[in-house]
Amino acid sequence: MASQDVFTGKLVRLVAADLEADSKLLADWDRDSEYQRLLNSERAVRFNAKQTQNFFEKEIGSMHFFMIQKLDDDRKIGMIDLSGFNWLVGNAWVGIGIGERAYWGKGYGTDAMRILLRYAFMELNLNRVTLNVFEINQRGLRSYHKAGFREEGREPKALLKAGVRYDLIYMGILRSDWEALQFEAQQKETEQ
Amino acid sequence: MNFATQLFESEHLILAAYDPEKDAAIEAGFTRNLDYAWSLDHDGIPHPLTTFEVKKKREEALKESEEKESSLYFSIRLKEDDRFLGVLAFPWISWSNRRGGFTLNMGDAVDDRLYYSEALQMTLRYAFEELSLFHTHIWTGSHDEAHLERLIEAGMNIEVRQRQMVYRNGRLWDNLSVGISQENWLKKNSEE
After folding, report:
1. With 0-12 CB in 10 A as exposed, 13-18 as middle and 19+ as buried, what is B29?
2. How many helices (H) and strands (E) does chain B have?
3. Distance of alpha carbon A81 from alpha carbon A99, whole angstroms
4. Measured between alpha carbons, how far is A172 from A148 in angstroms, rounded to an integer?
5. Edge-first strand listing for the sheet containing A164-174
């Protein structure tokens, strides 16, 4: 694979953020409170573009942050990042959000996650990638399973919204899990 | 348990405010034990810390605790002679979800053997009867069987097992979240 293709998948590519323009986009996406509630356990709030930009200017050095851009029309529809690196064990946490709800459930997030995992294992030499997801986010859960993540446990009833509690599900994928998936995919291609 | 229960005292121990001027030098000595150093930062590289580093870390944490009110720090002291034994911390409490984890570390192996369970009991009582948390948890590694046993004895359960996420003693271990709900803790303690 040519190195420039590391960040390109079947539906999307991952690109570095334009902090000024994309901060406006990210702040706009927060208008959708369901999007915020799926991403974060704390109270949904609104930040303006300048506040969002300030946050990223402060934090960008400690994370690998990408915008998710559609291949067919270059539209930016979401974001994905690796952070919380532990280089001793080769772990990082992934966060992902598709801000444009018209593109929910259409495979864009799964494609972005597959690109990120390829980058994590092939370029960053990580041994595992970790995430957590609320049980109410069934679409996310399905996508993470598809990308190869396995459930590693739950904090019961961790999230409280409108008087209802939901589990926080922890998921992880080891390099060995990911390599087995690549091998299976290659076998299938050979058979066809 | 009632309103007049002394939350900061148990048979042998006192929960006191952490005092960086007095406690940091002793705590720096504790970090010669890499188990203690690791417990201060699970994602870092465990190494002995200087008094300057521990004091700075604790002062920053105490400042953030005052400003954001989403974390709490206590020193654990022996009632008999006020000796500093270790630290109890709630590094992040989500008030909107009534959840938060804790760390509980003793610097000396003998003190740990004698007083860990007693300190744990005081920790859970404070978490559930004063902070009114719905659930709390502590992260530990699967290598640390001694503490795991005492957590289980206190009624806690392994809820999350993150594979290969801890490196100690020349190999990878699992990272475990061991938790208990307020409901189960109250039930267990009303039975006893």
Report:
1. middle
2. 6, 9
3. 14
4. 9
5. A12-16, A64-70, A76-86, A91-98, A128-134, A164-174, A150-161, B157-168, B171-181, B135-141, B99-101, B93-94
Report A:21-60 residues touching B (Cβ under 8 A).
Answer: 41-43
If one counts every other C-beta atom within 10 angstroms of the C-beta of residue A48, the result is 12
Residues 6+ apart with CB under 8 A from A81: A63, A64, A65, A66, A94, A95, A96
| DSSP code, position A192 | -
Do A147 and A131 meet the contact criterion of CB atoms below 8 Å apart? no
pLDDT at B192 over 80: no
Question: How far from B158 is each of A154, B28, B174, CA to CA, in Å?
Answer: 10, 30, 11
Q: Is B181 on the interface with A (CB under 8 A)?
A: yes
Binary contact (A84, B179; C-beta < 8 A): no
Q: Which two three-digit tokens encode residue A129?
A: 């990638």
The pLDDT tens digits for B122-152 are 999 999 999 999 999 999 999 999 999 999 9
- For chain A, the straight-line distance linking the first and the last C-alpha, in angstroms and rounded, comes to 21
- Give the minimum alpha-carbon distance from B157 to chain A in angstroms, rounded to a whole number: 11
pTM of the model: 0.95
User: Greatest CA span in chain B, whole angstroms?
Assistant: 49
> Cα(B63)–Cα(B66) distance, rounded to whole angstroms?
5
- Residue in A152, A154, A160 closest to B163 by CB: A152
- Cβ neighbors of A167 (< 8 A, separation 6 or more) are A134, A135, A154, A155, A156, A157, A158, A159
Q: How far apart are CA A144 and CA A171, in angstroms?
A: 8
- As a whole number of angstroms, the distance between CA B92 and CA B8 comes to 20
User: Does the beta-carbon distance from A86 to B177 stay under 8 Å?
Assistant: no
Chain A contact set for B177 (CB, 8 A): 153, 155, 170
Distance of CA B49 to the CA centre of its chain: 19
DSSP letter for each residue of A77-96:
EEEEEEEEEETTTTEEEEEE
Residue A3 has pLDDT above 70, yes or no: no
CB contact under 8 A, A153 and B134: no
